[in-house]
């Protein structure tokens, strides 16, 4: 099978609060939206923010939690962008988890959670190439 | 900012059990692995399965849960592939959440959780184009 993820779906308690975080904080533009979902076209896949109750019904679960063991990473072109983006995300409704600092493997990163508690790592990692279309290639 | 996610990181209690799910179930090949992380090169970004304790320390949280309000989607080329892939994932340590059926918006989908409780939607959705490199474009 292709090493492929088509969509990353985040459960969202309040869609307009979440939309503000992604549109104002990251500066992203929805490609589609209605009263229960907002889709963003990403680098080779789609990000969906979906009413948590609708996501739970779709995946046939009733026990959805937040603050879970996963994170999404957004890489920026320069070291000094990391704290700037973190600041912008907090201004748009995010909450700081970790201030920008240097992990043992190099580069710079910090963490912000979105208004629903989904964790975002904002990183500068020169080993991972990002092409003009935003496609990211693993590197050491 | 680019509409870009560089990495999706999943917290993993038992890395070899998780590796078996992704390698045997999906047939994916790691691009890098050590004793606390396995990376897979995906369609325009990287998937990382990371020891949950290390992820928690990295994101400066102590309260990580599982069975959370998010899902990852893998789209397959044909309707009849959906139940086959679901079966393969279960054989590799996954657990069925929802058998393949047709959602209101069309296509076919089912859900399986990985050994750590992370939800995967397996879907056939002819409206979303997938190119030869696995890059997915939103469509209606």
Classify the fold: give the CATH topology of chain A: 2,3-Dihydroxybiphenyl 1,2-Dioxygenase, domain 1
Helix share of residues of chain A? Answer: 10-25%
Measure the end-to-end span of chain A. Answer: 25 Å
Oligomer: homodimer
According to CATH, the homologous superfamily of chain A is 2,3-Dihydroxybiphenyl 1,2-Dioxygenase, domain 1
- Which chains have the largest interface? A-B, 68 and 68 residues
Strand content of chain A: 25-35%
Number of helical regions of chain A:
3
Number of strands of chain A: 10
CATH C-level class of chain A: Alpha Beta
Q: Structural class of the helix and strand makeup of chain A? A: alpha+beta
Give the spatial strand order of the biggest sheet of chain A. Answer: 1-4-3-2
Gyration radius of chain A (Cα, Å) is 15 Å
- Gross morphology of chain A: globular
Q: Helix and strand succession of chain A?
A: EHEEEHEHEEEEE
What about the largest sheet of chain A? 4 strands, mixed
Could you tell me the mean pLDDT of chain A?
A: 94
Number of domains of chain A: 1
Report the CATH architecture of chain A: Roll
Low-confidence stretches of chain A: none
How would you characterize this protein structure?
Two copies of one chain form a homodimer. Helices cover 21% and strands 34% of the residues of chain A. The first copy, chain A, is of the alpha+beta class and 140 residues long. In chain A, the strands form three sheets. In chain A, strands 1-4-3-2 form a four-stranded mixed sheet. In chain A, helix 1 packs antiparallel against helix 3. The first copy, chain A, is globular and about 40 Å long. The interface between A and B is large, with 68 and 68 residues. Strand 1 (7-12) of chain A pairs antiparallel with strand 5 of chain B, so a sheet runs across the interface.
